[in-house]
Structure formats: structure tokens, C-alpha cells
């Protein structure tokens, strides 16, 4: 592995107890940085003590949001080894996001080396308690200093790490979601396929309104017809109607979730009928009324799966599987986490061991 220059912290932080961990509140002792300059490409990879970045107020990212990120996790197994889950796939998606946002791509092996180098250095920060993990947040921001709107000529790549608690402290728990036709997440030709800051900024109002109406999250419908399922909050959505699992296709508005892809692959391994096709909210609500809507869940790195117990739309609520976590949803959760923590074998080679750094 490439060796990067490391400046070690002289004031290591007190590590929090595994029990006290939430999501993204505690950051580790070091960060990985690398610069991009037009003509020179990516250069000056380095690991520094974690700390604030100094940015001129006219830095373009602060005004026009040219920023991408990704999110993946490192898990400590019962064998004490640290594994990354589908790091290559995350690195490839990071580059697709870069391309969509007119940003320079990074060689996948450099992204991977930054993951291994920083997680290896911070290995003690990977928590031990069941369900906990170390979250990796690779990010690129535009760093030109000027107020004109343009794809920047200079960028900063940074990688930061955060120990996170179990998403489900008392077992997988269903949520109430609201299908909305007043807010839209993405349209074809827009930024829906990129993991970019703007998508999150514009999701806040829909989320706020869903919470005000007594739901946990928003189920977005397509921006043109306002009838096809798109995504739930910042997760991909799946439904099981009868014996068939249906999920919206990757057709220009949906983020290509790594958990989505993994769940689809596992369910196909298990011989289930899995279909990627547009599905309307009317079809889902009707299936909810006539009892054929067996399960519904979101997928994403943070939760793995998030079962939907109640689906609301136009003033009507349907209860799914009696408001309980469905059998298939639970099976996916168990299978994916078993691979992540090295408790089961990994037939698809999704995990990679992080080499120790001294
Ligand atoms: C990150 C994200 C997901 C989930 O992707 P994973 O790779 O499974 O974590 C789904 N939808 C949106 C909009 C996202 O930003």
C-alpha cells in the first residue's frame, strides 16, 4: 500500500464508550486530505490531525454547492479484524457522483488506499459492541475563490471518520412514512443519481413537513407524474406484494444504493422473484388495502434496512404486516450484517480486510 505522509496528533481525544455512540457526533483523531489543481491533477495526499479547514468566504462550494460525498462503514468482527463493506463499489459511485457534478474523478485505487490508510491508523476507533461501526465520509468540495458560477479548477478531497452506535438499539424497528405529492426529490436530467450536498439541502423541507404530520420520513414520488415511487428519505425503497419484491429501476432519478444492490443480489440468490420496475403509489396503497402488501422497507448504509410499518398517502394510512418488521426484511438485515461483521462467509467477496498500520 502507498505510504502517505502522516502528521500525528499530539492531543488524542478521549474515546467515547461504545454505549454512548450516536450517529456522526464524534470524529476521530486524524483526517486524510488531498488537493486537485488543474494541470497538476490530484496531489499532496496527507494525513493530518483532525481539525477545522480554513476557507475563504468566497470559496465556490460555500455558494454554489459543488460538493459530493459518500458513506460507508468499517466493522470490527468477532475475530477482531476490521472489514470494509463493498469499498470498491462505494469508490466507483463516488466517481460517478464526481462526473455528474463536473468534478474531477479520483483513481479508485487512490480512494481505496485513503480508506485503508486512515482506517488502519484509527483502528482503535472501530468500536466493539454489537451493531456499532466506524463510518467513513469521503468528500470532495470545490475550492476556487471567486463568485462566478463555473465548474471549479481546484478541489479538496477529504476523508473523515466517525464511530457510530447501532442504528437499532432494541432490534429492527418499523417506521411511519408519508408519501408526498407536494415535495419532489429529483427529476431525470437532475442530480438524483449523485450523492451531492444539494440533494440533502432540498430534502429538509419535505422531511420537516412529514414530521409535522406525525410521520418519521417522506416517501418521494416521481417529479413528473407524481405517482411513481422514487426514494424514501435518503434510502432506496422496496415493496413485497404477494411473492414478488419490486423496487424502482435506476432510471435517472434514483441513487444507486450499495445496500439496494446487495439486497437485490441476496434475494436473487435465495430464488425470490425480484423486479426492478416503476411502481405507482396507487398500486402500493391498493395492495395495502387488500392485504397483498406483505412488506415494505428502505435500504441504506446507516440502517441496512428500515421497515415501513405504516404508509400514509392523501389522508389514508395503511398498516403493513401489522406494523411489525416483516420476515424478509429481518432476513436481509441478518444476512447483510452477518457478512459485514464476518460472522458468515462472504460468497460475493463484498468485504475487505483493513491492514493494520503501526
Ligand atoms: C446514500 C443514499 C442512499 C443509500 O445508499 P447506500 O449505498 O445503500 O448507503 C439512498 N438514497 C440516497 C438519496 C442516498 O443519498
Notes on the structure:
Strands 8, 9, 10, 11, 12, 13, 14, 15 and 16 form a nine-stranded mixed sheet that branches. This protein has helices at residues 60-64, 87-100, 108-121, 197-201, 204-212, 258-269, 281-290, 327-340; strands at residues 30-37, 41-49, 67-69, 72-76, 82-85, 133-142, 154-164, 175-184, 217-221, 229-232, 236-241, 244-247, 273-276, 293-300, 304-313, 316-319, 351-353. It is 23% helix and 30% strand. Strand 4 (72-76) and strand 5 form a beta hairpin. The two termini are 13 Å apart. It contains eight helices and 17 strands. It folds into two domains: 18-166, 2-Layer Sandwich (D-amino Acid Aminotransferase, Chain A, domain 1), CATH 3.30.470; 175-340, D-amino Acid Aminotransferase, Chain A, domain 2. It is α+β, with helices and mostly antiparallel strands and 358 residues long. The mean pLDDT is 96. Helix 2 (87-100) packs across helix 3. The longest helix has 14 residues, at 87-100. Pyridoxal-5'-phosphate binds at residues 71, 195, 231, 234-236, 255, 257-260, 299-301.
Quick structural overview:
It is an enzyme of class 2 (transferase). It catalyses: L-leucine + 2-oxoglutarate = 4-methyl-2-oxopentanoate + L-glutamate; L-valine + 2-oxoglutarate = 3-methyl-2-oxobutanoate + L-glutamate; L-isoleucine + 2-oxoglutarate = (S)-3-methyl-2-oxopentanoate + L-glutamate. The chain has eight helices and 17 strands.
Amino acid at each position: 500500500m502507498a505510504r502517505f505522509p502522516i502528521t500525528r496528533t499530539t492531543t488524542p481525544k478521549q474515546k467515547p464508550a461504545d454505549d454512548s455512540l450516536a450517529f456522526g457526533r464524534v470524529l476521530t483523531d486524524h483526517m486524510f486530505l488531498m488537493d486537485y489543481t488543474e494541470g497538476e491533477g490530484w496531489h499532496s495526499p496527507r494525513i493530518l490531525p483532525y481539525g477545522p479547514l480554513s476557507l475563504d468566504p468566497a470559496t465556490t462550494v460555500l455558494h454554489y454547492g459543488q460538493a459530493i460525498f459518500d458513506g460507508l462503514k468499517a466493522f470490527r468482527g468477532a475475530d477482531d479484524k476490521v472489514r470494509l463493506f463493498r469499498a470498491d463499489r462505494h469508490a466507483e459511485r463516488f466517481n460517478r457522483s464526481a462526473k455528474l457534478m463536473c468534478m474531477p474523478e479520483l483513481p479508485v485505487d487512490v480512494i481505496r488506499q485513503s480508506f485503508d490508510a486512515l482506517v488502519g491508523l484509527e483502528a482503535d476507533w472501530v468500536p466493539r459492541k454489537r451493531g456499532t461501526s466506524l463510518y467513513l465520509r469521503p468528500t470532495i468540495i470545490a475550492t476556487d475563490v471567486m463568485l462566478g458560477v463555473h465548474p471549479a479548477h481546484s478541489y479538496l478531497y477529504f476523508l473523515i471518520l466517525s464511530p457510530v452506535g447501532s442504528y437499532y438499539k432494541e432490534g429492527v424497528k418499523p417506521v411511519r412514512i408519508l408519501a408526498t405529492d407536494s415535495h419532489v426529490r429529483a427529476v431525470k436530467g437532475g442530480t438524483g443519481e449523485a450523492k451531492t450536498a444539494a440533494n440533502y439541502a432540498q430534502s429538509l423541507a419535505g422531511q420537516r413537513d412529514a414530521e409535522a404530520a406525525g410521520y418519521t420520513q417522506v416517501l418521494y414520488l416521481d417529479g413528473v407524474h407524481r405517482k411513481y415511487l422514487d426514494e424514501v428519505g435518503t434510502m432506496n425503497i422496496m415493496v413485497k406484494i404477494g411473492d414478488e419484491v419490486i423496487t424502482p429501476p435506476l432510471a435517472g432519478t434514483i441513487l444507486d444504493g450499495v445496500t439496494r444492490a446487495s439486497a437485490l443480489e441476496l434475494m436473487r440468490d435465495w430464488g425470490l422473484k425480484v423486479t426492478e420496475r416503476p411502481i405507482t403509489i396507487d398500486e402500493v396503497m391498493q395492495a395495502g388495502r387488500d392485504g397483498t402488501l406483505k412488506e415494505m422497507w428502505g435500504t441504506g448504509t446507516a440502517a441496512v434496512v428500515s421497515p415501513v410499518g405504516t404508509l400514509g398517502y392523501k389522508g389514508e394510512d395503511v398498516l403493513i404486516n401489522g406494523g411489525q418488521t416483516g420476515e424478509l426484511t429481518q432476513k436481509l438485515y441478518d444476512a447483510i450484517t452477518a457478512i459485514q461483521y464476518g460472522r458468515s462467509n462472504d460468497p460475493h467477496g463484498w468485504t475487505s480486510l483493513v491492514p493494520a498500520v503501526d
